[in-house]
Amino acid sequence: MARLHLDHAQPTFVPIAPRGFVPDQVLFGAPRVRPPFGGQRIARSAGLVTEVYEPGLVLPTPFATRIFDPTAPDNPAWIDAAVATAAPMASGAAVPLGRFLTEGLAVAVLQRDVIGTVPLIGAELTPAQRAAMEALDFAAQFIAIDQPTRVRRMIVTQRETGLHQGRPAPLHADRFMRAAIEALRFAVEPYEISAQIALRRREPLSDYVIANRLSFDSWLASMGVVTIDASAMCIGGRDLGLLDLAAAMAGARNVVIDDPNQAGLLGFCDPGTQVVEIAVDGWADPRIAAMCRIFALDWRVVLCAAPVYSISQPVPLGSKSLLRTEIDIAGVAMALELS
Amino acid sequence: MLDQTNRRSSITRFDAGMLTPVHGLAAWRTACFDPAAPDQVFHHQPARRLNTRPQDSVDGDDQGNDRGANYELAAVSSVSLAAALLDPGSMAIFSPALGLFARAIDTLPGPLQGSLQRLDAVATPVAGADINDLRHFLYQGLPSAVMLRGLLGAGLHVAGPALRPWQAELLAALGLDQGYYSMTGPTKFTRIIATDMTQKAAPSRFARGVIDRLRFRFGQDHERTRRLMVGTVPAEITDEAREFGFEAVDLAALTMAEQARLFASATAVIGPSGSALALVGFCDPGTAILELQPCGAAEDWTRVLCALFALDWYGLDTDAPDAVSPTGLDRTSLRTCLNHITSAK
Question: I want to staple B135 with a disulfide (CB 3.0 to 4.6 A). Which of A65, A174, B278, B307 is the partner?
């Protein structure tokens, strides 16, 4: 049982695409595509609750917290935290930067106002995560752990999304995700590497092979769009620091993005920035659209045609995935108003 | 009474663009705390164009609703001014080298009142000239102070006049009440750090960082189901709105925390243009805001705020010159409007 329970916000919904999925205004790409998200124009906004457990258990990777039962048999893999009170934080290489900023770090910023400065505990920070912590003056209070750790008093602020079909509903976007992003954004001066940036994964979408990926990359470069790989923190072949990334995003007026895990990074863009999401027909992940609404960005989506395939068909030789699709370059050009 | 600034005609003005820019967070921190550093500026955001086009036209006046759909958000910069003076009466900032920091104040202040004090500290003002205006304090003054404090740490003191209870409550909620320097007269600080967020304009993006923190701090105690009417709403609108489940609320007796929680519980809010809608920033994204705009008195402030905070803004132009005169709206169009904003939720 929690010793303390504070309700900061209750779960609700965020409307997305406020003017609707209007073809050639919001929706671009192959003809006869279905509206994304099954035509639903709302995304989930999580509730936020703070609870105090005495004691608690923190698992660094994958990140999880548990109420610790003192009567349970001792596990030799568990260690005791060096501090009596700590707030767990989802961190480490398994947590994409966009998620770290909008979930773990945002909660730390919010907690500081309510409960003051408390030690934070989580998996070893990546360099970008550490840079964010340093910029917001959290680095000195972070304790890295690499195995399950008992904390005498654990302060947990967590999102509650409710249940969807009997399972915890996925997290989309909520207003509290802005807390750390706005603070970090205030710390940087926009630097226009290019007014047009593509925030893309180095590898294709995990479930799909993008047949014309090289063509698309070449087209982007020819149009002056600079590609940033946020998971590798690099731009072209050069490494990128977190504040450099924030400054580059702040300087952009058009952003192409294909990875919902990095949607939080869009928050560095200034209001009114045009965001073009690349997804596949039948797309059901509204995180990028919801993040655009939360940060007052102008969201558009280009849908690639969904492939038709036989369920018994083997994976083609040399391919990692059965599903193949193509990015509609003309659609992206229209969405970016470059054509 | 001081005489060194009484000769108003001799006061020069300056803005952030006239100072030497510093680049990078480390350099900015040095510019703020190094006693030998010259007056400098750090640019946070250039002017940006924001599309504030409403969700739909509900007043039969499409042209009116599209008025000023593209709004230019002002640039945001911070300045570091050595040996500068802050006047708590006008909240004007004077630099001995440059004159009056013009972006924070529209008109030249009158003679400074009270004896000049000196404080060996680096300080930032808690708000600008409109310190006692709720909209200004909440969305411009407070964000300026909170963001700078977050960036520069506890070495930056927040200063201003003796605060009213609602102002003190907001500062306390953000942990800024301890160490607040309550000024009794014009004070010369080692250095003043200020932003041009305190100028008269619509709020910047950075207001969100502060309002969201206050919203988290104040919490939520009621399910998000309420429809609110705030401020002076014309009687014919009130009567119709009640049939749609709207309740008139009196905010005067509530603390800031209670007001914030009330707005957090709303799915729709109706109110006249101006400070009555100041607290809609505490509403959750997607809340419908119906702004009643008397003819000839339309302003962009609430509309821009709604765009920045992901609220669904609707405008209802009335023929009334003010909030209490008959609106001239016919019942059918009014019901269409109310049905529209409530069915959207």
Answer: B278
- A241 touches B at CB < 8 Å: no
By the 8 A CB rule, do B98 and B81 touch? yes
Torsion sign, CA atoms A124, A126, A131, A136: negative
pLDDT of residue B310: 95
Q: Give the Å distances, CA to CA, from B36 to B83, B191, B201.
A: 11, 11, 33
How far B168 CA lies from chain A's nearest CA (Å)?
15
Contact B209 A179 (CB under 8 A): yes
**DSSP characters for A121-143?**
EEEPPPHHHHHHHHHTT-GGGEE
pLDDT tens digits, one per residue of B66-84: 555 788 999 999 999 999 9
- The minimum CA-CA distance between A37 and chain B, rounded to whole Å, is 18
SS3 state of residue B340? helix
Nearest CA in chain A to B25: A187
CA A158 remoteness from chain centre? 16
CB pairs under 8 A between A and B: 134
Alpha-carbon torsion B1, B4, B5, B7, what sign?
Answer: positive
Q: Which residue has the tokens 């009417």?
A: B229
Instruction: Name chain B contacts of A12, Cβ cutoff 8 Å.
Output: 224, 284, 286
A199/A185 Cα distance (integer angstroms) = 17
- Tell me the C-alpha distance between A10 and A170, whole Å: 15
Instruction: Give the residue-averaged pLDDT of B256-262.
Output: 97
pLDDT value, residue B54: 62
Distance from CA of A270 to the nearest CA of B (A): 7
CA dist., res. B303 & res. B53, Å (int) = 9
What domains can be seen in chain B, in order of their start residue? 8-210 (no CATH), 219-343 (3.40.50.360)
Cross-chain Cβ contact A182/B23 below 8 Å: no
Q: What separation in angstroms does the CA of B235 have from each of A7, B95, B228, B265, B267?
A: 36, 51, 15, 24, 22
Structure tokens at A189: 């001066």
Per-residue pLDDT at B312 exceeds 90? yes
For residue A129, is it left (φ>0), alpha (ψ between -120 and 50) or beta? Answer: alpha
List of chain B residues whose C-beta atoms are within 8 Å of the C-beta of residue A113: 173-175, 213, 216-217
Asked if A296 lies within 8 A of B205 by C-beta distance, the reply is: yes
Mean pLDDT over A15-34 rounds to 83
Q: Helix A242-251 to helix A178-186 angle, to the nearest 10 degrees?
A: 90
SS3 (DSSP) at B239:
helix
Domains (ranges, CATH) in chain A?
22-41+190-335 (3.40.50), 47-160 (no CATH)
Work out the pLDDT band at A75, boundaries 50, 70, 90: confident
SS3 B90: coil
* Maximum C-alpha span of chain A: 67
Model confidence over A199-215: pLDDT tens digits?
A: 987 765 556 778 888 99
Query: Which of B40, B212, B280, B300 to mutate to test binding with chain A, by most A CBs within 10 Å of its CB?
Result: B212
Helix (H, G, I), strand (E, B) or coil at B336: helix
Q: How far apart are CA B267 and CA B37, in angstroms?
A: 50
- Using a CB-CB distance cutoff of 8 angstroms, which residues of chain B are in contact with residue A114? 216-217
Question: Residue A172 in contact with residue A99, Cβ under 8 Å?
Answer: no
Q: What torsion, rounded to 10 degrees, do the Cα atoms B70, B75, B76, B79 define?
A: -160
Tell me the shortest Cα–Cα distance from B73 to chain A, in angstroms: 9
